[in-house]
Amino acid sequence: MTERLTSMKNPKVQFFRSLKERKGRLAGGAFLAEGEKMAAEALASGFPVEALLLREDHAPPPGLPADLPVFVLPEHVFASLSDTRTPQGIAAVVRMQPRRPVGSRLIALDGVQDPGNVGTILRTADAAGLDGVLLGPDCADVFSPKTLRATMGSIFRMGLLFPEDLASRLSALRAEGFAILSSQLDGELFSALPAPGDRWVLVIGSEGNGVSAAVRAAATHHLRLPMRGGAESLNAAVAAGIMMYELMKNIPE
After folding, report:
1. How far is CA 5 from CA 15, 22, 73, 92, 123, in A?
2. Helix crossing, 236-248 with 115-128: angle to 10°?
3. For residue range 9-19, what is the model confidence (pLDDT) as tens digits?
4. pTM to 2 decimals?
5. What CA–CA distance (Å, rounded) separates 221 from 227?
6. Burial class (CB in 10 A: 0-12, 13-18, 19+), 186
7. How many other CB atoms are there within 10 angstroms of residue 175's CB atom?
8. How many whole angstroms separate alpha carbon 52 and alpha carbon 34?
């Protein structure tokens, strides 16, 4: 089912454009997966895709579901909803219905506010083989265009949870037997950590303030990476990547 939309005043175009902003995404319950790779990942995922948007010079990809609405847009209309300088001419409208984590090796983000860091951590968690990500309420919007680009499609493969009170959720997981591993500059050396078993949550704090006091109190371990040089701290995504791979190194592929 293909329809051509030519006016910026068209209600459908206005809805698609609203998805560039968090307010519009929350109101519409959807987000835009823009670009060849992201659109393909969305179509191949378990997320419900509501529509496919194509610039008028872009051919539809093969194998589309017969009942998927496809909207063809002139260049200026497509550019108005794109978040990139050089749009690739394709975007998927996707419902915000991520799957819940299935498994027991998790990472929690406590106020990580940079979209690039959040997206990179999701991508690294996917690559390292973790089961899911918990995102506290003060984190960057995981469905924003910048975060989505940084995930490189991993948003569609990772289980996600959005607890309103991250500390309470971590306390509940601790009561279930999970090790809660809080990364912080005043913790014990990460290399001295005994094997945490098969049930753990690695917590990464905000770029400026680190892990919050409430989350620290919920942790079973407080850990830091060694700083042998002059830097006072590591980028949040870099630190998360080192710790995730270390925690997963003895897990069979």
Report:
1. 12, 24, 5, 15, 34
2. 10
3. 999 999 999 99
4. 0.92
5. 19
6. exposed
7. 9
8. 10
Domains and CATH numbers, the chain: 2-95 (3.30.1330.30), 105-248 (3.40.1280.10)
Q: Which residue has the higher pLDDT, 24 or 233?
A: 24
Query: Which amino acid does the sequence have at 28?
Result: G
- The whole-angstrom separation of Cα 72 and Cα 174 is 50
Q: Look up tokens 């872009």; give the residue.
A: 58
Can you state the percent helix, strand and coil of the chain, rounding each to 5? 35, 25, 40
Please tell me the distance from the alpha carbon of residue 18 to that of residue 13, in angstroms, as a whole number: 9
28: pLDDT strictly greater than 80 = yes
Least confident of 69-78, 115-124, 181-190: 181-190
Residue type for 143, please?
F
In percent, the amount of the chain with pLDDT more than 70 equals 99
